[in-house]
Amino acid sequence: MKIYGDRQSGNSYKLLLVTSFLEIPYEWQDIDIKKGETKTDSFLKMNPNGKIPILILDDGRILSESNAILNYLAEGSDLIPKDRFEKAKVLQWQFFEQYSHEPYIAVARFISHYLGIPEERRAEYESKQEGGHKALRVLETQLTKSKFLVGDSITTADISLFAYTHVAHQGGFDLSLYPKVLEWIKRIESLERFKPMNSI
């Protein structure tokens, strides 16, 4: 199978992590967002939404949306709980990631780390700080109760939230304010077969 993604993208990084943890073979295809490679006719045929990552299976079927791909790849593994309620909790955290976390932390990171906070986007960057800190506080609260987001072992919920949280400082977020989050980051980084973001 083939994964189309950007090496700097947290959404793409989720798939690097799950394939590494589960030792799933794949072929990587670099897509440069800043060069407009998600807007080409050939890419839009694969994903009309013009976003990465996408997964192309051996039989040609295509999946988009990072968390959908992540859960597809992890299906049947210990990364997805068997218990119905705990599985729903994983999905709860993944919806949180896409609606209450990524729009603030990932966007602030992009504006700061990749664009250098141009003046025309400074107000947008600053507007993302409150929402990002709110999301980090939610994570901190949960991680005072459990080692991982859903119990005492890693799930796809952790992979989803780790991807942009561990680089949140690149968006101007001081992670030292969130000691339990920092412990959780170190816990994930210490797992067997962990790979850092730029190791694709």
TrEMBL record:
Pfam families on file: GST_C (PF00043), GST_N (PF02798)
Q: Which residues form the GST C-terminal domain?
A: 83-200
Q: Which CDD domains match?
A: GST_N_4
Top-rank taxon of the source lineage equals: Bacteria
Q: Which InterPro entries match?
A: Glutathione-S-Trfase_C-like, Glutathione-S-Trfase_C_sf, Glutathione_S-Trfase, Glutathione_S-Trfase_N, GST_C, Thioredoxin-like_sf
List, alphabetically, the Gene3D superfamilies matched.
Answer: 1.20.1050.10, Glutaredoxin
Residue intervals of the GST N-terminal domain: 1-81
Q: Which family does it belong to?
A: Belongs to the GST superfamily.
Q: What is this protein identified as? A: Glutathione S-transferase family protein
In its UniProt entry, the species of origin is given as: Leptospira montravelensis
